[in-house]
């Protein structure tokens, strides 16, 4: 838990502030009973339009949980997996804002996988060198599975070794219902819950590089043909500033999202398992629509609820 420091002028209020912060921490990080996490109590019981199926959760930074709705069992999360991939890569190889990072050589495997019709990829060519930041962009913005695996091999030597890091990072964050089996999310065996993914969202949004990348609608990368377009079509609507989409037949549609209120508060949320069994594109559209409805309602109701 973060440590809070009170300036000298506020020392007279330190005790009261500590009590308030402890209460807020209880809301966001509730105690456990018999080793099991107790679901967070909503800080505000808003009548939100939660998705009819799947699972979803949301919180407001500095306020706490807005609740969790739907199933709480682990489900496939598809390319939302790449958020953890970015988290581990940046934990091992941190970047300063604006830093391009080390040049990484594209291997033959990443090029061969770039032509796959079975998954989302980025068109990279073997032998070219691309900066770490640009590779993170190619992974997070157009959701390049081949780039996720390339970054995993660069970081840990093999995807299997990198996956072990992913699972250790998940355990460190208290993501007790999460199992990663690949760096890209293409495997249906990578499963998690909305509540666990919200814990990750909290952490990655502390990184300015991640915040910048996931807020980018499109960009160009040297050596990659054409514009790289973000799969998160909610950017710029209802204050949305990121984070990451995911879709597959088993996962349906998924979205980890971040938005700002007009007053600047950060809202984080996760919507999973929308329209599973349908086409990935239909599932993604369902996740985007459900998330947009939820975000708009929070934006509308929050000001009156916090007066």
From TrEMBL:
Name of protein: Serine hydrolase
Gene3D superfamilies recorded: DD-peptidase/beta-lactamase superfamily (3.40.710.10)
InterPro entries: Beta-lactam/transpept-like (IPR012338), Peptidase_S11 (IPR018044), Peptidase_S11_N (IPR001967)
Keywords of this entry: Cell shape, Cell wall biogenesis/degradation, Hydrolase, Peptidoglycan synthesis, Signal
PANTHER family documented for this protein: D-ALANYL-D-ALANINE CARBOXYPEPTIDASE, D-ALANYL-D-ALANINE CARBOXYPEPTIDASE DACB
Chain residue ranges for the region called Disordered: 98-124
Start and end residues of each Peptidase S11 D-alanyl-D-alanine carboxypeptidase A N-terminal domain: 71-272
Cell wall biogenesis/degradation as UniProt keyword: yes
């Amino acid at each position: 838990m973060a440590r809070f420091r009170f300036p000298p002028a506020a020392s007279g209020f330190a005790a009261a502030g500590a009590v308030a912060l402890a209460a807020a921490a209880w809301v966001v990080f509730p105690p456990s009973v018999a080793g099991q996490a107790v679901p967070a109590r909503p800080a505000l019981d808003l009548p939100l339009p939660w998705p009819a199926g799947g699972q979803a959760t949301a919180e407001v930074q500095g306020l706490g949980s807005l609740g969790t709705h739907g199933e709480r069992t682990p489900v496939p999360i598809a390319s939302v997996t790449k958020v953890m991939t970015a988290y581990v890569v940046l934990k091992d190889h941190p970047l300063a804002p604006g830093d391009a990072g080390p040049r990484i050589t594209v291997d033959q495997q990443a090029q061969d996988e770039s032509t796959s019709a079975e998954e989302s990829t980025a068109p990279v060519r073997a032998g070219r060198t691309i900066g770490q930041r640009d590779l993170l962009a190619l992974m997070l913005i157009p959701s390049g599975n081949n780039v996720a695996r390339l970054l995993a091999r660069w970081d840990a030597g093999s995807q299997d070794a990198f996956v072990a890091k992913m699972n250790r990072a998940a355990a460190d964050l208290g993501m007790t219902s999460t199992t990663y089996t690949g760096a890209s999310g293409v495997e249906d065996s990578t499963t998690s819950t909305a509540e666990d993914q919200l814990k990750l969202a909290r952490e990655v949004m502390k990184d300015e590089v991640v915040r910048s990348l996931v807020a980018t609608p499109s960009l160009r990368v040297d050596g990659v043909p054409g514009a790289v377009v973000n799969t998160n079509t909610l950017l710029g609507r209802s204050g949305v500033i990121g984070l990451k989409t995911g879709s597959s037949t088993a996962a349906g549609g998924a979205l980890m999202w971040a938005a700002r209120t007009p007053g600047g508060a950060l809202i984080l949320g996760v919507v999973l398992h929308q329209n599973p069994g349908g086409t990935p594109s239909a599932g993604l559209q369902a996740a985007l629509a459900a998330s947009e409805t939820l975000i708009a309602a929070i934006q509308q109701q929050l000001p009156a609820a916090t007066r």
